[in-house]
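TICKET: design request
STATUS: open
ATTACHED STRUCTURE:
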């Protein structure tokens, strides 16, 4: 009896697998996971929210600095997105809550010649995204994941979420948005990763393939 019950439990929730059942939803070369792997360079930053700020500069009428309290008071939306990491894990239906970028930009006085944005984050992390890509409805400055404030390891207090690009574009611990006329490469992009990073076109690398072991992500910390 007991064994049968155990078996039934197992068959009810099969481990998610890459395959035909996902149709066009899983980008090529990706593996589905229900975990949430944790990936970053350097230490997890610690913050005092009373001194934390987000700077907006570059091609804007006037530079602006937002406090955490100001951002938190802005209208927020909920989204559900699929995310795809260049190390080959994908996660479906991730629930985020935060300020929609296309709403936020209305407050910024961005000059018409701005075409690219450099996202600045702690510690010394940068990643470049075309402004057009940030205007998608599900691109957020996210405070919450799954109804809870971001954990420190996933970007507390604020991260970018750009689900349609490989997840390294979704900078954790963001501190600045620099609007630019010309594109410039960020941290991973100068280190051989693709400047645009569309997972459905497998835009992983800019030159030669970088050999990332297929199972590397399974050895990372996750929650
Ligand atoms: N500030 C910062 N943001 C970052 C990174 C980083 O090293 N520093 N790593 C990126 C990479 S490579 C990935 S895959 C995702 C991972 O986010 P997660 O740890 O929440 O899964 O964060 C991105 N954002
Ligand atoms: Mo990554």
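STATUS: resolved
RESOLUTION: sequence designed for all positions
ATTACHED SEQUENCE:
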């Amino acid at each position: 009896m007991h064994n049968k019950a155990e078996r039934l439990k197992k068959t009810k929730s099969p481990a998610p697998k890459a395959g035909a059942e996902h149709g066009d939803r899983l980008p090529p070369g990706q593996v589905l996971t229900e975990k949430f792997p944790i990936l970053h360079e350097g230490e997890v930053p610690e913050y005092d929210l009373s001194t934390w700020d987000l700077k907006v500069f570059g091609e804007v009428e006037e530079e602006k600095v937002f406090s955490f309290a100001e951002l938190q008071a802005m209208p927020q939306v909920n989204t559900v997105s699929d995310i795809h990491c260049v190390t080959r894990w994908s996660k479906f239906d991730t629930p985020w809550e935060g300020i929609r970028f296309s709403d936020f930009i209305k407050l910024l006085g961005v000059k018409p010649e701005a075409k690219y944005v450099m996202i600045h984050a702690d510690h010394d992390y940068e990643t470049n995204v075309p402004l057009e890509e940030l205007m998608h409805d599900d691109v957020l400055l996210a405070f919450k994941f799954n109804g809870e404030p971001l954990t420190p390891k996933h970007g507390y207090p604020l991260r970018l979420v750009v689900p349609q690009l490989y997840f390294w574009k979704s900078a954790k611990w963001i501190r600045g948005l620099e609007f630019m006329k010309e594109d410039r490469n960020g941290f991973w992009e100068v280190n051989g990763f693709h400047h645009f990073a569309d997972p459905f076109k497998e835009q992983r690398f800019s030159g030669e393939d970088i050999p990332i072991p297929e199972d590397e992500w399974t050895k990372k910390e996750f929650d």
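CLOSING REMARK: The pocket of molybdenum atom (ligand 2) is lined by residues 39, 85-87, 167-168 (CB under 6 Å). The mean pLDDT is 92.
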